[in-house]
Amino acid sequence: PPLYTQRYQFIIDYVKTYRPKKVIDVGCAECRLLKKLKFHRNGIQLLVGVDINSVVLLKRMHTLAPLVSEYLQPSDGPLTIELYQGSVTEREPCTRGFDLVTCVELIEHLELVEVESFSEVVFGYMAPGAVIVSTPNAEFNPLLPGLRGFRNYDHKFEWTRAEFQTWAHGVCREYDYSVQFTGVGEAVGHWRDVGFCTQIGVFQRNFDGINQSMSNAESLEPSVYKLLYKVVY
Ligand code: SAM
User: Fold this and answer.
1) CATH code (residue 213)
2) String of b and e for 15-24 (b: at least 16 CB within 10 Å)?
3) How far is CA 190 from CA 145, 147, 194, in A?
4) Could you tell me the residue range of the domain that residue 199 belongs to?
5) What is the CA radius of gyration of the chain?
6) CB atoms within 10 A of CB 209
7) Rounded distance between C-alpha atoms, residue 203 and residue 137, angstroms
8) What is the pLDDT of residue 94?
9) Ligand 1 interacting residues, C-beta cut-off 6 A
10) Mutate-to-test residue for ligand 1 from 34, 60, 109, highest number of ligand atoms within 8 A of CB
11) CA distance 45 to 78
12) Taking the model in full, what pTM does it have?
């Protein structure tokens, strides 16, 4: 299967095992992962997508609408889906209290200073139970035919495994998470040691859930995201 399918499947498998109730996909683009998670719910109750680009969000958000059959045969209990236009480098009160944040092929589109804000916002402020981050493994690039430079014109960097792991370990130290590394897309034969085509970090929060009842100051923080779509099943 194509690489993006393998990335989504990795997350579906994770959800099947750990059964998070509230999942937020940052940089969700055309909501492909959300659509799959809606199908493989495994007990998810709240599914949120965020992207900075409202054009890509609007393009296919109708694919998240319930099918007539889903009204006739309600499954699995209530499900709410929300899509927001916003940047994951900004603090948004409604993004706190999630069990899982997925971040598939997003960070390499950020400038390195924005990666700093991303880390602070996602791990420090949103502080979810778990975070899954995927990004290209630069060491795999020589195996990609005809590739010169980065895999996409909009990539600001592509990290080696060591670079990704240095960032991830730094985040864990600062925000009290643990991380394990894996990936999808394997090379064969003696090329195996370049690692996966897509590298993935799975982060788990080491401390108990953040207190849901926010302090006064925090509950007064204004919303910065723009709600574009909401459906309740
Ligand atoms: N996660 C999707 C997937 O795997 O198919 C899309 C990945 S796409 C390569 C990267 C997405 O990140 C784009 O849709 C882009 O608009 C979004 N993005 C870039 N910077 C962002 C930011 N600061 N906040 C939220 N989304 C952002």
Assistant:
1) 3.40.50.150
2) beeeebebbb
3) 17, 20, 9
4) 3-232
5) 18
6) 11
7) 18
8) 94
9) 4, 26-29, 32, 50-53, 56, 87-89, 104-106, 109-110
10) 109
11) 6
12) 0.95
DSSP-H helix ranges across the chain: 3-18, 32-39, 54-60, 68-72, 112-119, 161-175, 216-219
| Confidence category of residue 120, pLDDT binned at 50, 70, 90 | very high
Query: If we measure between CA atoms, which residue out of 43, 29, 19, 22 comes closest to residue 7?
Result: 29
Task: Please give the distance, rounded to the nearest whole angstrom, from the Cα atom of residue 75 to the centre of ligand 1.
Answer: 30
β-pair type (177-184, 100-104): unpaired
85 vs 27: CA distance, rounded Å: 10
**In total, how many domains does the chain have?**
1
Give which of 119, 84, 122, 81 is closest to 101, Cα–Cα: 122
For the chain, how many helices (H) and strands (E)? 7, 8
Nearest Cα residue to atom 2 of ligand 1: 28
Q: Is this complex's ipTM strictly greater than 0.95? A: yes
Residue 72 has pLDDT above 70, yes or no: no
Q: Backbone dihedral region of 74: left (phi > 0), alpha (psi from -120 to 50 degrees) or beta?
A: beta
pLDDT value for 221: 78
Residues in the chain: 233
Give the closest residue to 88 by CA, choosing from 62, 111, 58, 114: 114
Distance CA 231, CA 101 (A): 20
